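Researcher: Please predict.
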Amino acid sequence: MALQRQQFDAALQELRKALIDMGEKVETAILNSVIALRDNNLEMAEGVIAKDKEVNEAEEKIIEMGTNLIALQQPVAKDLRRVLVAFRMATDLERMADLAVDIAKVVRRINGEPLMKPLVDIPRMTEIVQTMTNDCLRAYTEENVDLAYRMAKMDDDVDHLNSQILRELMGLMADNPKTINQAMLLCFVSRHLERMADHATNIGESVVYLVVGKRPDLNQ
């Protein structure tokens, strides 16, 4: 029995490591997509798009590892929740990476055209989203409910910035119709970052479910 527990704990540790590795890939994709936008760097944007395959493979690996754990170890109660939460986290992380790819594709569409204004609030949103990504993964590995609940406050901050960006861009479009195309693309970028924050908050909810057995609604 003790040996079986040791084997499960070792496999679970490998699963946690795979999630952290995937999370680091997602953080890099988020940062690089916005740097590519800020600097109008099409080469960096193409790199984000190309590396998305690695994130997809990481998700598949986590699902396979978790499935094997369930099949071979037949975990119950909190042990089972640890595996099920890993599945959900991998899905949220993969969707965050997809949104980073969407931002990189905006760089393609801008296609070297000078930005209509220096980016200020979008990089601020990005910084918060990166912090959320890091913190929600740490909350999982430490099973830290307090850290998980912090996602709600940071998500509110991102929502506020998103609303501020949209108001500003709408005003610029009204003042100068020639900005409409690029302004709409920047609206999409802001929305993509806002959705990333939602996914990070979902992970926070999953951590609370893991620890207490009940899922809260942090996306209110």
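Model: The mean pLDDT is 94.
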